[in-house]
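Protocol step 4 of 6: structure prediction from sequence.
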Amino acid sequence: MSLPSSKFYTTKEVAAMEGVTEDYLRKLVAKGEFIKPSRIGKPHRWLKTVVDKHYSDLNTESLKQSA
């Protein structure tokens, strides 16, 4: 059974958003420096709503600090 791709980002997509390689993204997750994937096992998947909220929160925090 495959996951609905419209609800999830792949490791490749999230790595591209972060501007890092897939291996480096996995290291960030392992060190607790990036949100864990929602899907345990292989392939790893991140819920789009969780990732989008993460970036929205970062953007909001950035705007607060620059004001």
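Step 5 (inspection) to follow. The chain has a mean pLDDT of 86.
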